[in-house]
Amino acid sequence: MKSYVVIGLGRFGSAVAQELMRIGSEVLAIDSDEERVNGVAPFVTHALIGDATDEAVLRSIGVQDFDCVIVAIGENLEHSVLITLALKDLGAKKIVCKARDDTYKRVLEKVGADRVVVPERDMGRRLAQTLNNSNVLDYIELSNTFGLVEMTAPRVWVGQSLLESHIRERFGITVLAAHDQDGSNFVISPPAGYVVKENDVLIVVGRSEDFEKVQKL
Ligand code: ATP
Q1: Rounded to the nearest 10 degrees, what angle do helices 102-110 and 77-89 cross at?
Q2: Which end of the chain is more exposed for a tag (fewer CB within 10 A), N or C?
Protein backbone atom coordinates (compact mmCIF):
# COMPACT_ATOMS: atom_id res chain seq x y z
CA MET A 1 0.00 0.00 0.00
CA LYS A 2 1.42 3.41 -0.95
CA SER A 3 1.47 6.25 1.55
CA TYR A 4 1.00 9.95 0.84
CA VAL A 5 1.01 13.28 2.63
CA VAL A 6 -1.33 15.90 1.18
CA ILE A 7 -0.55 19.47 2.29
CA GLY A 8 -3.32 22.01 1.60
CA LEU A 9 -6.92 20.90 1.52
CA GLY A 10 -8.52 23.27 -0.97
CA ARG A 11 -10.64 21.75 -3.74
CA PHE A 12 -7.60 20.27 -5.45
CA GLY A 13 -5.88 18.83 -2.37
CA SER A 14 -9.15 17.37 -1.00
CA ALA A 15 -9.90 15.71 -4.34
CA VAL A 16 -6.39 14.22 -4.52
CA ALA A 17 -6.59 12.96 -0.91
CA GLN A 18 -10.01 11.37 -1.36
CA GLU A 19 -9.12 9.74 -4.67
CA LEU A 20 -5.90 8.30 -3.20
CA MET A 21 -7.97 6.78 -0.39
CA ARG A 22 -10.51 5.40 -2.84
CA ILE A 23 -7.79 3.54 -4.73
CA GLY A 24 -6.48 1.99 -1.52
CA SER A 25 -3.64 4.25 -0.36
CA GLU A 26 -2.82 5.62 3.05
CA VAL A 27 -3.21 9.42 3.32
CA LEU A 28 -2.10 11.93 5.93
CA ALA A 29 -3.80 15.25 5.20
CA ILE A 30 -2.62 18.60 6.63
CA ASP A 31 -4.01 22.12 6.51
CA SER A 32 -3.60 25.15 8.75
CA ASP A 33 -7.37 25.74 8.53
CA GLU A 34 -9.29 23.71 11.11
CA GLU A 35 -12.51 23.72 9.12
CA ARG A 36 -10.80 22.32 6.02
CA VAL A 37 -9.18 19.58 8.12
CA ASN A 38 -12.51 18.65 9.72
CA GLY A 39 -14.12 18.48 6.30
CA VAL A 40 -11.59 15.94 5.02
CA ALA A 41 -10.90 14.00 8.26
CA PRO A 42 -13.70 11.40 7.81
CA PHE A 43 -12.29 10.36 4.43
CA VAL A 44 -8.54 10.01 5.13
CA THR A 45 -6.28 7.87 7.32
CA HIS A 46 -5.08 10.83 9.45
CA ALA A 47 -5.87 14.54 9.34
CA LEU A 48 -3.80 17.19 11.06
CA ILE A 49 -4.15 20.92 11.71
CA GLY A 50 -0.76 22.56 11.25
CA ASP A 51 1.34 25.09 9.42
CA ALA A 52 3.48 23.08 7.01
CA THR A 53 6.02 25.92 6.65
CA ASP A 54 7.02 25.00 10.21
CA GLU A 55 9.74 22.39 9.71
CA ALA A 56 9.03 20.89 13.14
CA VAL A 57 5.54 19.93 11.93
CA LEU A 58 6.94 18.15 8.88
CA ARG A 59 9.64 16.46 10.97
CA SER A 60 7.11 15.19 13.52
CA ILE A 61 5.12 13.52 10.75
CA GLY A 62 8.22 11.75 9.41
CA VAL A 63 7.74 12.93 5.83
CA GLN A 64 10.72 10.83 4.69
CA ASP A 65 8.75 7.65 5.45
CA PHE A 66 5.98 8.42 2.94
CA ASP A 67 6.15 7.46 -0.73
CA CYS A 68 5.12 10.92 -1.91
CA VAL A 69 4.18 14.37 -0.60
CA ILE A 70 1.71 16.52 -2.52
CA VAL A 71 1.92 20.27 -1.91
CA ALA A 72 -1.53 21.39 -3.01
CA ILE A 73 -1.27 25.12 -2.32
CA GLY A 74 -2.01 27.17 -5.42
CA GLU A 75 -2.03 30.81 -4.38
CA ASN A 76 0.74 31.26 -1.83
CA LEU A 77 4.02 30.66 -3.68
CA GLU A 78 6.11 31.58 -0.66
CA HIS A 79 4.47 28.80 1.37
CA SER A 80 4.85 26.27 -1.44
CA VAL A 81 8.55 27.16 -1.80
CA LEU A 82 9.29 27.02 1.94
CA ILE A 83 7.47 23.71 2.29
CA THR A 84 9.24 22.19 -0.73
CA LEU A 85 12.66 23.27 0.58
CA ALA A 86 11.92 21.83 4.02
CA LEU A 87 10.64 18.59 2.48
CA LYS A 88 13.88 18.27 0.47
CA ASP A 89 15.97 18.88 3.61
CA LEU A 90 14.02 16.25 5.50
CA GLY A 91 14.56 13.66 2.76
CA ALA A 92 11.07 13.37 1.28
CA LYS A 93 11.19 10.65 -1.41
CA LYS A 94 8.99 12.40 -3.97
CA ILE A 95 7.47 15.89 -4.00
CA VAL A 96 4.60 16.85 -6.30
CA CYS A 97 3.47 20.48 -6.25
CA LYS A 98 0.45 22.27 -7.60
CA ALA A 99 1.24 25.59 -9.31
CA ARG A 100 -1.00 28.43 -10.39
CA ASP A 101 0.87 29.07 -13.64
CA ASP A 102 4.10 28.36 -15.53
CA THR A 103 6.11 30.96 -13.60
CA TYR A 104 5.21 29.32 -10.28
CA LYS A 105 5.96 25.95 -11.90
CA ARG A 106 9.50 26.99 -12.83
CA VAL A 107 10.21 28.29 -9.33
CA LEU A 108 8.95 25.10 -7.70
CA GLU A 109 11.01 22.92 -10.05
CA LYS A 110 14.11 25.01 -9.24
CA VAL A 111 13.69 24.48 -5.50
CA GLY A 112 13.41 20.73 -5.92
CA ALA A 113 9.86 19.61 -6.73
CA ASP A 114 10.02 16.33 -8.66
CA ARG A 115 6.84 17.13 -10.53
CA VAL A 116 4.72 20.25 -10.81
CA VAL A 117 1.16 20.21 -12.12
CA VAL A 118 -0.71 23.27 -13.37
CA PRO A 119 -4.30 21.97 -13.30
CA GLU A 120 -6.16 25.10 -14.41
CA ARG A 121 -3.87 25.61 -17.41
CA ASP A 122 -3.96 21.94 -18.39
CA MET A 123 -7.74 21.68 -18.03
CA GLY A 124 -8.14 24.90 -20.05
CA ARG A 125 -6.03 23.46 -22.85
CA ARG A 126 -7.93 20.17 -22.77
CA LEU A 127 -11.24 21.96 -23.01
CA ALA A 128 -10.02 24.18 -25.85
CA GLN A 129 -8.86 21.12 -27.81
CA THR A 130 -12.22 19.37 -27.41
CA LEU A 131 -14.14 22.52 -28.39
CA ASN A 132 -11.93 23.27 -31.39
CA ASN A 133 -12.44 19.85 -32.96
CA SER A 134 -15.86 18.24 -32.80
CA ASN A 135 -14.27 14.78 -33.15
CA VAL A 136 -12.06 15.23 -30.10
CA LEU A 137 -13.62 13.94 -26.88
CA ASP A 138 -10.64 14.43 -24.60
CA TYR A 139 -7.06 15.69 -24.82
CA ILE A 140 -4.11 15.15 -22.53
CA GLU A 141 -0.92 17.08 -23.09
CA LEU A 142 2.12 14.77 -22.79
CA SER A 143 4.76 17.43 -23.51
CA ASN A 144 4.94 20.77 -25.31
CA THR A 145 4.82 18.86 -28.59
CA PHE A 146 2.94 15.62 -28.01
CA GLY A 147 -0.58 14.85 -26.86
CA LEU A 148 -2.94 11.95 -26.28
CA VAL A 149 -6.36 12.35 -27.87
CA GLU A 150 -9.60 10.45 -27.50
CA MET A 151 -11.60 11.05 -30.66
CA THR A 152 -14.55 9.80 -32.63
CA ALA A 153 -13.19 8.14 -35.78
CA PRO A 154 -13.45 10.52 -38.78
CA ARG A 155 -16.01 9.26 -41.34
CA VAL A 156 -13.36 8.76 -44.06
CA TRP A 157 -11.63 6.13 -41.92
CA VAL A 158 -14.80 4.09 -41.31
CA GLY A 159 -14.83 0.72 -43.12
CA GLN A 160 -11.07 0.87 -43.74
CA SER A 161 -8.29 -0.87 -41.88
CA LEU A 162 -5.69 1.25 -40.09
CA LEU A 163 -3.23 0.19 -42.79
CA GLU A 164 -5.56 1.16 -45.66
CA SER A 165 -6.19 4.64 -44.30
CA HIS A 166 -2.41 5.14 -43.80
CA ILE A 167 -3.05 6.89 -40.51
CA ARG A 168 0.53 6.73 -39.30
CA GLU A 169 2.18 7.65 -42.62
CA ARG A 170 -0.21 10.44 -43.59
CA PHE A 171 -0.89 11.98 -40.22
CA GLY A 172 2.06 10.90 -38.05
CA ILE A 173 -0.27 9.67 -35.33
CA THR A 174 -0.49 6.20 -33.77
CA VAL A 175 -3.71 4.51 -32.71
CA LEU A 176 -3.20 3.05 -29.23
CA ALA A 177 -6.71 1.73 -28.65
CA ALA A 178 -10.22 1.62 -30.07
CA HIS A 179 -13.57 1.09 -28.38
CA ASP A 180 -17.31 1.54 -28.85
CA GLN A 181 -19.02 4.76 -27.71
CA ASP A 182 -20.19 3.09 -24.49
CA GLY A 183 -16.63 1.93 -23.66
CA SER A 184 -17.28 -1.71 -24.64
CA ASN A 185 -15.23 -3.79 -27.12
CA PHE A 186 -12.00 -2.16 -26.01
CA VAL A 187 -9.14 -3.17 -28.35
CA ILE A 188 -5.72 -2.24 -27.03
CA SER A 189 -2.99 -1.71 -29.63
CA PRO A 190 -5.22 -2.61 -32.60
CA PRO A 191 -3.37 -4.44 -35.41
CA ALA A 192 -2.83 -2.82 -38.82
CA GLY A 193 -5.73 -4.92 -40.12
CA TYR A 194 -8.19 -3.47 -37.58
CA VAL A 195 -11.19 -2.12 -39.51
CA VAL A 196 -12.56 1.13 -38.07
CA LYS A 197 -16.30 0.90 -37.32
CA GLU A 198 -18.84 3.72 -37.46
CA ASN A 199 -18.86 5.54 -34.11
CA ASP A 200 -15.59 3.93 -33.01
CA VAL A 201 -13.72 5.96 -30.42
CA LEU A 202 -9.96 5.98 -31.04
CA ILE A 203 -7.25 6.83 -28.55
CA VAL A 204 -4.31 8.22 -30.47
CA VAL A 205 -0.91 9.69 -29.67
CA GLY A 206 0.92 12.21 -31.81
CA ARG A 207 2.13 15.76 -32.28
CA SER A 208 -0.41 18.47 -31.57
CA GLU A 209 0.14 19.88 -35.08
CA ASP A 210 -0.68 16.46 -36.60
CA PHE A 211 -4.07 16.44 -34.91
CA GLU A 212 -4.82 19.62 -36.85
CA LYS A 213 -4.49 17.64 -40.09
CA VAL A 214 -6.94 15.01 -38.84
CA GLN A 215 -9.35 17.78 -37.91
CA LYS A 216 -9.52 18.91 -41.54
CA LEU A 217 -10.69 15.49 -42.77
P1 ATP B 1 -8.08 25.11 -4.63
O2 ATP B 1 -7.52 23.74 -4.64
O3 ATP B 1 -9.39 25.18 -3.90
O4 ATP B 1 -8.08 25.79 -5.97
P5 ATP B 1 -6.02 26.97 -4.08
O6 ATP B 1 -5.18 26.50 -5.19
O7 ATP B 1 -6.66 28.32 -4.20
O8 ATP B 1 -7.12 25.92 -3.68
P9 ATP B 1 -5.03 27.84 -1.67
O10 ATP B 1 -6.38 28.37 -1.33
O11 ATP B 1 -3.92 28.76 -1.87
O12 ATP B 1 -5.09 26.88 -2.85
O13 ATP B 1 -4.60 26.82 -0.54
C14 ATP B 1 -5.16 25.56 -0.39
C15 ATP B 1 -5.15 25.19 1.06
O16 ATP B 1 -3.83 25.20 1.54
C17 ATP B 1 -5.97 26.11 1.96
O18 ATP B 1 -6.94 25.33 2.63
C19 ATP B 1 -4.94 26.68 2.93
O20 ATP B 1 -5.47 26.78 4.25
C21 ATP B 1 -3.84 25.64 2.89
N22 ATP B 1 -2.53 26.17 3.24
C23 ATP B 1 -1.93 27.27 2.72
N24 ATP B 1 -0.72 27.45 3.30
C25 ATP B 1 -0.57 26.44 4.20
C26 ATP B 1 0.46 26.05 5.11
N27 ATP B 1 1.57 26.77 5.23
N28 ATP B 1 0.27 24.95 5.87
C29 ATP B 1 -0.85 24.21 5.77
N30 ATP B 1 -1.85 24.51 4.94
C31 ATP B 1 -1.72 25.61 4.16
Answers
A1: 20
A2: N
